[in-house]
Amino acid sequence: MKTLLLLAFVFFTASGFSQNLYYGNVSEGGIPVPGASICVINSSRCTTSDFNGNYSIEVKIGEQLKISFIGMKTKIISITNLNVQKNEQTVEHILSDDYSKKLKKPTDSLKISEPSGTFNFNLLDGIGEDYLMKIDRSDEHVYSLRYKNKYHKLSFEASQEMFVSSPMRMAHYQKTYAQGKSVNGKLTYQSPETNQIFSWGPNVNTLEYSANPSEYYAQGNIVNKTFGNENSLQLYNPNGFFKNTVDNKYLINTQIEGPKGNFLKINFAYKTGRISIPSSRNNELETSVRYFRNVSKNSRIESILSFDDFENNLPNSNFIVNKIVFANAVTPIHFDNRFASALSNGLQRSFAVSENNPYYLIQNNMDKNKSKTISFNFNHKYTGHKNSNTVNTSFQSSEITNTNGQGFYFSGITTPNFNKRTERFTNFSVSDVFNHTIDNGFVESKIDLRFQERNLERNYFSGFASPDDFPNNSLNLRKLNVVQQRFEIFYNANISYTFQDILSYYDELVLKASTNLNHSSTVKGKFMPNFLASAEIKRLFDEQLSLSISQSYNQVEPSLQNNNLNFNSLIYNLGQFKELQNNLELITPKNAIPTEEINTNVGLVYNLNYQWNLNFSFYHKRVENLYVPIFSLNTANWSPDVNYKQNGVEFEIQKTIYGRDLTYNFNFNFTHYKNKVVSLNNNLSRIPFAGFKDVNKNYIVGQPLGVIVGNGYLRDNNQNIIIDDDGFPMEDSEPKILGDPNPDFVVGFFNTLKYKNFALNLSFDWSKGGELWNGTQQTLNYYGKSEITEKQRSITNYVFKGVTQDGAINTKAVSFYDVSLPVEQNRWTRYGIDGVAEDAIEDATYFRLNSISLSYSNYSGYKKINYTLSFFVHNVFVLSKSKTAFSSNSMFNSLDSGGLDYFNAPMMRSFGSSLTIKF
């Protein structure tokens, strides 16, 4: 810490009062320190130093002065002897101990600490308005001044945040062709009664409504247009199905603060919103009570009680969101799903019995999620001269209930089903952390005792006799009930020590070491060792240059449970999409093998002219026994079978430019990494972990993590595509690696511009390289609903590049859609609903203006009412090689399925505002 240099002297007034006016000066390195706080301990007498560092304050013998300033070491001065004679106007100068030491050793250098904080307002603003009683330092290292008028007050904070979001980067659909196909060499419209799924029919301009309405078409059944009639078909844009959303968050905080820093804080928050699917809704209620009390000068206690209640009526726990998007997308452009979702006989009203109406799925949705969580935390912290000790206890109890099912008349479902999944979690922990400070470092010891219990109960219902029985009255019931308990003891020891003046006068060498010994009742061998060692040298070669290196080894036990859509979908082929169910559970086995992780990091930090911060780091990571799902007979086991390594570099530039009323800050960071699967346990050749049975992400030895595997075109030894006798490329029956979803590098650029009370923030991100699988496009091509098939279905005399099965150069010309042939033989439908996955691989590169925000704040520590008003936009725009799919818009809203697109919910561009008022 910087040391306060205090030049103090006493002037005794002629009044004869027992209190004397004490004059002093605060300086650092001979430079006056204005705004320092000077208080008589255990009294309300406080003052601050003026522009020249001078101050005066009433004192009496035996009292102590506390002099403090932000970023400097606090000083305590005792008033022991005034040495004055009555009725004389002059006194002997009394020097503080600190000033005497400075006189004896005037060449001592001042040791400057690491940056300890910043003001959130100008320090000088409030001088003279009231007594300065306290300086607070937040967890974010922001200091604020506390004046007498801030105590014994009730304060409120209220805020409201609103988002309006609209879908973006939507699929591109054809707008020309009707339901149907070629019949006897002629494009023929086929009505819903024919259960035709294809939109390979005639131009909609050749059709009209008849005078005979039906349950499918209220305007009249569709017939071929006759001369003179103008009863044209009404067309529907599938993207019109999605809705703009409005999300709101309301927050109210109340705080009562006492004169000793004690306070009681009550928080209440309510959030409501929805996704772009009609009728979706989620609500969340959060509330907490926090109490903080200084028990003594060196001791404090804190307790927090919180409660969270969440409900979502469309959580996608059983693929329902993707199924709704699918049903909407493949519907012919002239079929109005909104008109009705069911027929008079109770059956689903759709353009074909093998397809769903998205509104029918919404109205009969069984995917719902509810959760309640209550938690309590209590800690006691003691802080002495060189020792501190914190005791913490915490308890959490939660219940999560998910229901999902597929009812009567759902297309693709032969047997209606319903299940209810309830998880109850209980967590309890007690920890003690002891810290001892030494001259140039510290020693810390921590012991942590934890108990976890998970109770999973899942009931599967089936065998419903009629729609009236669904979902409560089933003939068959299968139960899954698993109770898991884990008791853990964590012991951790840390030490840090700083050596000074190693290579030059101002440098420092900081050595740190940490070791853990963890015991778990559910891990094999019961014990898991961990360690960390690091060294950092600062101000190297008399420059603002720091070099660091660290090495760590960690063993981590897997969580007690895992249930997600990623591995549940792996037992289904893409053509079975409408049948998908989330029925499988991954249960962590007893005597689990821990996952091991070894990390090596090298970092370099350079401060150029105290204005530019340049950071560079290199890391190497090796992971052993990563847990993955392993399938056998339609069951999944949670098994530690993947070993991989990853190397990466990160580079960051930070710069802040200051003006009189303007501040500009930017942060530029660059990340590049490469990973590779080193080996798989149990003699496995590859392990799929997300996607479908026939198109998935994988761990394969020698390949990057998550490579995309699927079918491709058949090729000869020279990688020429082999063309069949019909003139079209042949499909390879063997799956192959098609793409790597990992980017070559990622760049982030963050900007903050502040002018007086205004703040403007902009953030950009750029991801270069990597591939994604756009399965949505392939299936739309199959149905004849894509914009591509609209533009290309009339192409004729096209020769595919490749060789025939005999090895000759292909010369056979084809038509993409020859109406004289069955529709199943055209360019796209011949390969099935999933197409050829190789065709669906797209470049994942993108550049995005991620967010813009503008805010105005009148915040000041001296105003009774403070407010902040903000406006912001997220996902402002995206430029990418793929026009619809986006690598960050994962298939099932999970990182594991990133890079896969199969009727994902659309990306959203959000416009929002927030208002926060404090008084």
From TrEMBL:
The keyword Signal applies. It comes from the Bacteria. Keywords: Signal. Pfam families: CarbopepD_reg_2 (PF13715). Residues 1-20 form the signal peptide. This is CarboxypepD_reg-like domain-containing protein. It comes from Flavobacterium limi. The lineage of its organism: Bacteria, Pseudomonadati, Bacteroidota, Flavobacteriia, Flavobacteriales.
